[in-house]
Design a protein that fits this description.
By secondary structure, the chain is α+β, with helices and mostly antiparallel strands. It has three domains: 65 residues, no CATH class; 238 residues, 3-Layer(aba) Sandwich (D-Maltodextrin-Binding Protein, domain 2); 213 residues, Roll (Dipeptide-binding Protein, domain 3). Helices cover 30% and strands 20% of the residues. The chain is built from 18 helices and 20 strands. The strands form six sheets. Strands 8-9-10-1-11 form a five-stranded mixed β-sheet, with helices on one face. Strands 12, 13, 16, 17 and 18 form a five-stranded antiparallel β-sheet that branches. Strands 4-5-7-6 form a four-stranded antiparallel β-sheet, with helices on one face. The protein is globular, with a radius of gyration of 24 Å. The N and C termini lie far apart (57 Å).
């Protein structure tokens, strides 16, 4: 084993050298240094000064403390915040498959780690973590003294219970696919009451990122399966009311473990409320001052609200997208020629303009985005309806194909669906549209043979791919593999990428993965979305998070 210098993973020193040579960005250095166990303060100083010595903790932290001290006089406590967001059914947090439900649950429950708006992952319920040199063993050290809102102290038994729920096939969590490098609970060791060790079958750089996947809320060992009936968590708020399709109301905890600038327990706000409104009603409500914010504004909402007095618009680039996904276990999508023919019918620039006012980045048909650290830039495919028609004929459909495209109506999917319908007609596709309310789509999103699914942001390129494009050890698609596509070569190369620390080396593997998805994969993907947080300017501390997460613990009002 390579000797550690000053207690840091040896790869951190290699990355600092790459940073000095200009081969790595400061953000990428910060991301991977913290990922491999360096404190955020240590990583900040190392990235800024490029020095060869590890700063003392007090030196590393002093700048942040000084900045915090300047802010003490400006922080206001009290008041409430109201946001418009559709409220759907919630039961087991490990089964969450949409961000809205996670925004409800995260006000009450918390995660072992936290990926901020800057795309850097830091310890949260964890005090710190350590990885061995080949990232096959991760030791997780819990903070001590954190209590659930029922008074029970958070300990390793709660984490062990929660991981067991993630890995329980009967629960049906997407975490099962994400953590496929574990051999069930046999790979999870309780070291003591505050320490857990993960023994990976293969190395994986993304463990801290995976622990912030939105179904990964840490539950008490007494959890019985329904979060609304048993809203017990370590978070800053308690759930006072949840009426599906109507309202969710939260109240601040007086004994939350994290403190604010004034050394008193967070949060700053007294109450949070979500009201369940359709999109157009939500826009009218924020214009009229009935709500302070709204969930995931559409491009048309951004156009309407971006110049409204009293509103603050915060943009962010993301790895969010709308994938046109085909079930490869159902005709006619079993034939790669048919899948590729539909991909060739995308005029990506026009789709981006029609559906998103041009506010995004063009994409190839692979689920790896420019904001991902090892993104491989490949040529954007051209719109080619004649080539599509020839492929369909070769596949045995000289007279074309009639197919039904299913999606939802609460974001840009209808515009994408209508554009694709028109663009695919010259290519031999007669596309019938089945566009439903959001709930009607999410109830069947993994079952339809052709659909448009909105996928949220993931901070690492190696994070979304095992969620949606692999099979488990029994050869069955993982829970979120809506296409049922599993390619042996793709999976092997993905495992290589997951264990590769060097960004340039991983980018070379990512080029191969992206090419495989373009050549024989199950999705079309025209563009990557830009997002906007639109909130009343009465609120400070608001983050525009690339996953649309409402991070409310340190938000305050400036009008009190």
């Amino acid at each position: 084993m390579e000797k550690r210098k000053n207690g840091l993973h040896p790869a951190i020193w290699d990355m600092q050298s790459s940073l000095r040579k200009g081969n790595m960005t400061r953000r990428d250095f910060m991301r991977f240094a913290t990922l491999l166990g360096a404190s955020a303060a240590t990583a900040t100083v190392m990235s800024a000064c490029g020095g060869s010595q590890t700063p003392a903790p007090e030196q590393a932290a002093s700048g942040g403390e000084a900045s915090a001290a300047k802010e003490v006089g400006t922080i206001k406590r009290g008041g409430s915040w109201t946001s418009a967001m559709e409220l759907q059914a919630i039961d087991h947090p490990a089964r969450l498959s949409w961000t809205q439900g996670a925004n409800v649950a995260r006000q009450v429950g918390e995660y072992l780690t936290e990926t901020g708006a800057d795309n850097i992952t830091r310890p949260h319920l964890l005090d710190h973590w350590e990885a061995n040199n080949d990232v096959t063993e991760w030791t997780l050290y819990l903070r001590k003294g954190i209590k659930f809102n029922n008074g029970q102290e958070l300990q390793a038994d709660d984490v062990m219970f929660t991981i067991g729920e993630w890995l329980n096939e009967d629960v049906g969590s997407s975490m099962l696919g994400l953590l496929s490098y574990l051999n069930g609970m046999d790979s999870v060791e309780k070291v003591d009451d505050y320490t857990i060790k993960l023994h990976l079958k293969t190395g994986n750089i993304g463990v801290p990122e995976h622990l912030f996947h939105y179904p990964a809320i840490i539950l008490p060992r007494t959890f019985e399966g329904d979060f609304i009936k048993q809203p017990v968590g370590t978070g800053a708020f308690t759930l006072e009311e949840y009426a599906e399709g109507e309202r969710a109301r939260f109240k601040r905890r007086e004994d939350y473990w994290k403190k604010g600038f004034d050394d008193k327990p967070l949060p700053y706000l007294d109450e949070l409320t979500y009201v369940s409104l359709k999109r157009d009603a939500a826009v009218a409500a924020i214009q009229g001052g009935q709500v302070d914010s709204l969930f995931q504004p559409r491009p048309s909402d951004w156009q309407t609200l971006k110049d409204v007095p009293g509103l603050m618009v915060r943009p962010v680039s993301t790895a969010q997208c709308f994938v046109t996904r085909m079930r490869v276990d159902l005709e006619p999508w079993t034939d790669v020629r048919v899948r590729n023919a539909l991909k060739m019918c995308q005029d990506r620039e026009k789709i981006l303009q029609l559906a998103y006012f041009g506010e995004g980045d063009l994409s190839i048909d692979a689920h790896v985005a420019p904001v991902h650290p090892a993104f491989c830039e490949l040529p954007i495919p051209k719109y080619d309806p004649e080539g599509a028609k020839a492929l369909l004929a070769e596949a045995g459909h000289p007279d074309g194909l009639t197919v039904t495209l299913v999606t939802k109506n609460d974001e840009s999917e209808p515009a994408i669906a209508q554009a694709l319908k028109e663009m695919a007609a010259p290519g031999g596709f007669d596309i019938r549209l089945d566009i439903t309310e959001a709930g009607g789509y999410w109830e069947r999103w993994t079952e339809v043979d052709l659909g448009i699914t909105a996928w949220t942001h993931r901070p690492l390129d190696t994070m979304v791919l095992p969620l949606a494009y692999i099979a488990d050890e029994n050869g069955e698609p993982v829970p979120w593999n809506e296409t049922r596509w599993a390619d042996e070569e793709f999976t092997d190369k993905l495992r290589q990428a997951e264990a590769t620390l060097d960004v340039d080396a991983r980018r070379a593997i990512m080029c191969e993965l992206e090419n495989i998805m373009q050549e024989r994969g199950p999705i079309g993907n025209a563009f990557w979305k830009k997002l906007w947080n639109i909130t009343s300017d009465k609120f400070e501390g608001v983050q525009s998070h690339p996953t649309n997460y409402d991070m409310m613990t340190e938000v305050w009002r400036n009008d009190l």
